[in-house]
Amino acid sequence: MKNNNSSLSRRAVIKSSVFGILAASIPSISYANYLVDYKEPNKNLPSRYPSIDDEIVNEVVGKSHFDFERVKTLVDKRPELARATWDWSFGDWESAIGAASHVGRRDIVNYLISKGARPTMFTFAMLGNFNVVKAMIESNEGIQKTQGPHGISLLQHAKAGLRMKDKMSNEAILNSEKLIDYLTSLGNADGEVYEKFNEDEMPKYLGDYKYGDGEKDGFSVKINMRKMLALGKLGEFGGGLYPIGDNKFLYNGISSVYITFQVKNDVVESLTIHEPELTLIAKKV
Known about the structure:
- By secondary structure, the chain is an alpha+beta fold.
- About 40% of the residues lie in helices and about 20% in strands.
- It folds into three domains: about 10-40, no CATH class; about 55-185, Alpha Horseshoe (Serine Threonine Protein Phosphatase 5, Tetratricopeptide repeat); about 200-285.
- The protein has helices at about 1-25, 30-40, 55-65, 70-75, 95-100, 105-115, 120-125, 130-140, 155-160, 170-185, and strands at about 85, 95, 205-210, 220-225, 230-235, 240-245, 250, 260-265, 265-275, 280-285.
- The strands form two sheets. It has an eight-stranded antiparallel beta barrel with strand order 3-4-5-6-7-8-9-10.
- InterPro entries: Ankyrin_rpt-contain_sf.
């Protein structure tokens, strides 16, 4: 009896093993269908999937400048977007909380922090947190000269903190004013000092510049909200141009990228982008 059971057990093991091998080697119909689907490109997935869609990241950073309700709609659904960061061009990186900070949107900043955003020195400056900013400066000599997104200085962030003054407590207002006085007293917390630019000269630079045959192969030079020349993708607004010489500008204060304009008889004919490993010429159209 014992031998029969052993024999039966061995046959059962062999049988189950054979069917196990067959099951593993012959896909089911549903699995075969999945393989077929896998070979077809999924047009619904973002180009950099599993990274979050660039359009969504761009939107949440852009809307963090002014649209609280849209930011809430996006971030409530995906709280990780509270930490979203976008490169506006040439390495002008800006986070969602950085965007809200330099325009003084305390409401958006506080909401993003509640969802996991990482506040920076510029955020604390906008919020008027005197003790935090002062401690950071005293422990990191010269850090007050660091520029924020778009080349906006620490002092300008502190001043932006009073844009919602009508909704601030007296204590908050006093803290912001105290911080502004302190940063002003340092003498170097308002960013780089650039050459003066004659606003009457602006019109000659304005327009579109093409560097290829593609629909988007070009730049547009416009005047932005800060009354500066700005360089953006064709048809769009972009970063400010900071004058550093005759017809020579830094892009949003980024030290490694500068733009020169080629002028003949006081007429601008082209512009040249100078990057560390690239030089690109675009002709005015």
